[in-house]
Amino acid sequence: MGIKTYKPTTPGLRWKTVLDFKEITKTTPEKSLTITRKKTGGRNSYGRITVRHIGGGHKQKIRIIDFRRDKKDVLGEVIAIEYDPIRSARIALIKYSDNEKRYILYPVDLKVGDKITSSKDAEIKPGNSLPLRSIPAGIPIHNLELDIGKSGKIVRSAGSSAMIMAKEDPYAHVKLPSGEVRLIKLDCWATIGQVGNIEHEAISIGKAGRSRHMGIRPSVRGVAMNPVDHPMGGGEGKSSGGRHPTTPWGQITKGLKTRKSKTSDRYIIKRRE
Fold first, then answer.
1. In 3D, which of 121, 122, 132 has the Cα closest to residue 154?
2. Which of 80, 102, 115, 169 is the Cys-Cys partner for 66 at CB 3.0 to 4.6 Å?
């Protein structure tokens, strides 16, 4: 897996970089594990825009990913590594011994033909899913549950991994990718390994068209608008607005504390860096 660059024959290609996709072994998704993705254009059920800068983009199929890993003590074989258009990570197609197929997140060093399982007594190797109680400290993990049996909720993006720092029954001290150290119950499950596609963060979009392909529409800075359009608009020459940064509706955008529920504070040992 590496990054491909182009000769700057056009302005759009000058900074454009893409992944070489060498780890991909299958280009057509498993039909039984895909559903059509409906485009909203950022609009709610009344047709009003609730999320700006969304619209257009290429048609995509949603791959149904097994974040729960609830097929316990059944051996599965990796039969393909595939691209997923709606996430930064790659996905692996698993065929279990009872012939059922499922997608999981593709971790680093997992290969076609490898055997994986989800068990309390599983081997500590990439792709296997175990409870935190059975995972030694210092091992990279991903697809981590926050509540027992509620499926993996965090550490799912490309290149990310968490790590168990210590165990104090009934909790494990887990260091998350943000640097936060958090208490998570030892009976929560996680998958061994670091999520694949590590080079994802090094990609340069290169041109506006690639953002449009992904369904991202242009966004205009408030200071570039007129006073009638934005609280930070107007002014002689290039003005920074003359006030604290806000949304078009006057809500402060930098430094305003918006967190209302503090119930999870007791689980945070060290704040993110």
1. 132
2. 102
Mean pLDDT computed over 116-139: 96
User: CA-to-CA distance for 105 and 83, rounded, in angstroms?
Assistant: 11
Specify the CATH class of 226-273 in words.
few secondary structures
Instruction: Note the pLDDT of residue 188.
Output: 97
C-alpha span between 183 and 185 (Å, rounded): 7
Tokens 């993996």 locate to 152
Alpha carbon distance 62, 235 (integer Å):
46
What does the block give as tokens for 25?
């072994």
Distances (CA, A) of 57 to 11, 38, 213, 223: 22, 12, 4, 28
Domain 3-201 has CATH 2.40.50.140: yes
Q: Whats the size of the chain, residue-wise?
A: 273
Quickly count: other Cβ atoms within 10 Å of residue 149's Cβ: 10
Q: What span, in angstroms and rounded, lies between the C-alpha atoms of 155 and 182?
A: 13
Locate the domains of the chain by residue range: 3-201, 226-273
| Residue 108: C-alpha distances to residues 111, 191, 198 (Å) | 9, 12, 8
How many Cα atoms occupy the beta-carbon half-sphere of 111 within 13 Å? 2
CA angle 89, 20, 157 (to 5 degrees): 10
- Where residue 1 falls among pLDDT bands split at 50, 70, 90? low
